[in-house]
Amino acid sequence: MIQVVGHKNPDSDSICSALVGAALLKARGVEAKAVRQGEINRETQHILQTAGVDQPEMCTGVAGEKVWLVDYTDLAQAPDDIAEAEIVGIVDHHRLGDVMTVNPLEAWIWPVGCTCTIMFNLFKMENVEITRELATLMMSAILSDTVGFASPTCTQKDKDAVAELAPLAGVEDLDLFIKELLIAKTDIQGLSAAELVEKDLKAYPFKERNVVVGQIELATLEQVEDMIAELEADLQRRCDEEGLAMAALMLTDITTSTTRLLYKGEWNEVLDAYAKDGMLMMENTLSRKKQGWPWLQQVLA
Ligand SMILES: [Mn+2]
Asked: What does each C-alpha distance from 238 to 7, 131, 225, 263 come to in angstroms?
C-alpha cells in the first residue's frame, strides 16, 4: 500500500494530486490511497463537490509505510514521522527541498504551474483512462494554482493540459468554470484572523532560522481591511510561540496582482525600509513561489 500525501495546510493541488496520484497507482495495479494532512479549504470543497469525489482520509502517520509526496519535497511540509517512512515517489513543481531517500525512487519534478499538470502527462504517457472525475480534479487544480492562467508560474504545458481536460470533464464554458472556482478561492467570510493566517501558511528554513509566509488570495484588499491589526497580532503570536525569525502574510488581490505584505518578527526593520505609510505594497505580485518569497529572500539575505 502506497500512501499518496500532499503537504501540510493542503491547498487544492495538494488534495487533487493526492487523489489523482492514487488513481494512477491503482491503474498500474498498485494498492494506493490518497491522504491529507489537514482540513480542506473552501475552494477544494467546491472542487470535490463539482467532481463528485470524497475528500481523502486524514493522514494519521506514515511510519513504516511507503509514500508518494505530491506538491512538495520539503520535510517541514511532510508528515511529522516521515523519517520512518519510505519515500518511493515524488510528483512536484516546486524547487527541490531537503528530502533524502535510501532506495531509488520515481521522481517527476517539472517547472510547471501545477502538480496536476505533471499528473495529466503521466496519465497520457501510460495510456491510463482519464475519467470525468479525474479530469475535473486535475483541471481545477491547474486553474487554482495558476489563478486561471494569470500567475507567472503558468506555462504552456498547463494551458495545454486544461485544453485537453476540459472536454473530458464535460466543461463547455471555461470562463464560467474559472469564475466559480475563483469565487470559492477568495471566499474568506467568517474566518478568524488565526484561520486566515493558517489557511495557506508555508514554513521556509532560511539562514538557519525558521520563517513562515502565508498567503490569502482575495477579490479585493477591502475584504481584510478591518482585520489588519488582528492579522498582525496573530503573526506576532506565532513568532513568540514558535521562535520564528519572521512571520509574514501576503494579502493578494488576484484581480489586480497587487499584494500587501504584513510581517512581524526580528527582521522587521529590514522590511520597514520598503514600506510607505506603514504599508508594504508589492505591485505585480501574484505568486508566493515565483515573486513573493524570492523577493523576501533577496531582501533578507
Ligand atoms: Mn501546487
From this structure: 20, 43, 21, 11
Residues of the chain with confidence (pLDDT) below 70: none
Tens digit of each residue's pLDDT (9 = 90 or more) over 243-257: 999 999 999 999 899
First-last CA distance in the chain: 43
CA separation for the pair 149, 243 (Å, rounded)? 37
Tell me if 115 sits within 8 A of 249, measured CB to CB: no
Q: How far is the CA of 277 from the centre of ligand 1 (A)?
A: 34
Where are the CATH 3.90.1640.10 domain residues in the chain?
2-184
Structural Rg of the chain based on CA atoms: 19
Distance 190 CA to ligand 1 centre (A): 26
CA of 285 to the centre of ligand 1 (A): 17
Grid coordinates belonging to 5: 500525501
**C-alpha cell belonging to residue 86:** 519510505
Residue type, 36: R
Report the Cα 150 to chain-centroid distance in Å: 16
Evaluate whether 165 touches 140 at the Cβ level (below 8 Å).
no
Question: Model-level pTM greater than 0.85?
Answer: yes
Q: Which fold has domain 2-184?
A: inorganic pyrophosphatase (n-terminal core) (3.90.1640)
Regarding beta strands 201-206 and 209-218, do their DSSP bridges make them parallel or antiparallel, or are they unpaired?
antiparallel
Task: Compute, in angstroms, the gap from residue 249 CA to the centroid of ligand 1.
Answer: 18
Read off the pLDDT of residues 142-180 as tens digits, 9 standing for 90 and up. Answer: 999 999 999 999 999 999 999 999 999 999 999 999 999
User: Which residues make up the CATH 3.10.310.20 domain(s) of the chain?
Assistant: 193-300
Beta pairing, strands 258-265 & 32-37: unpaired
- Is-contact 224 196, C-beta < 8 A? yes
The x, y and z cell numbers of residue 227, run together, are 482585520
CATH superfamily, domain 193-300, is DHHA2 domain (3.10.310.20)
pLDDT of residue 205: 87
